[in-house]
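The aim of this short unit is practical: by the end, you should be able to scan a pair of folded records and say something sensible about each. We start with the first protein, listed as its amino acid sequence and then its structure tokens.
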Amino acid sequence: MPATFRLSTATPTDIPRLAQFVNRAYRGDSSRQGWTTEAHLFDGQRIDEAGLADLLALPNAAILLCSGEENHLLGSFHVQAQGTVLYLSMLAVAPAAQNQGVGKFLLRAAEDYGWQHGCTVSRMTVISVRPELIAYYERQGYQRSGKTEPFPTDPRYGIPKQPLTLLVLEKPLKEVS
């Protein structure tokens, strides 16, 4: 595990490498090395370069990057302040770097981003058939809101192998110390 993590934000020049990184973390054989794989749930990619450009162009949005030694990309996380709500999506951690604190580092950085942008609640959606991922976020203080959302049908985010629903998880934000 790297002794320290470095936080930065993605720019348009990062999009090609970020698309490859996110897709390797979520889909395909390389993702199966980690516990957060979605390869058993989807065919196709997780996101394409145009989708990443769209995310970067949203108002009050950023893609946070966690790098380790020699600027090696270990994780990424999309954040967007929407009024008083911080919306989190697409936390990706390199399969070989999972269980080393990268996800927690990015989650804390995301919550700090929300606090700095006047957000009082952090919100995310998680695929309902991912109990291990839901449990991870619950250990980080997120709670099920009781709300659900349909899974997007746009094939550029992958083709579900079964019907899927998203659970909405929320957490009140406090200043990160």
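Turning to the second protein, read its sequence before its tokens, just as you did above.
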Amino acid sequence: MKVVVASTEEQERHISELVDQLYTEIFPKFFPDDEIKGLKDKHVLKPQETDQMYNSNLKDAFQIISSLQAIVAVLEHIDDCKHVEDYQNMFERNSMNLNNFGYYFPLTFAQFKHAESQSGEFSQYVRPANNWIV
């Protein structure tokens, strides 16, 4: 018999927050809105119940969280990285880890590295500075 510890609500919420961070802070830097909409339509980083390998246990949750955090860190520093091969290996390893857990992530390091900068562009996916309508 094997004892498995279930993931906590906080971990599940943190996974959702990291996915949201990718859509609202990271993707708008690299892709225009129509491409981000396409990613949402393809259910990128939204695991399907039918092919979900993640069983909501503590170990899997930690691996998903660390993979998402690593991808965020790599993408935040992709323009000023000195060791491109190391960054690419880290990105690919964590991307493969997410896919193994059923978090569909088809994007490659090259897509981000060679993307035309969207900095300064308006995006509907960027989180607003406040929630008040003035």
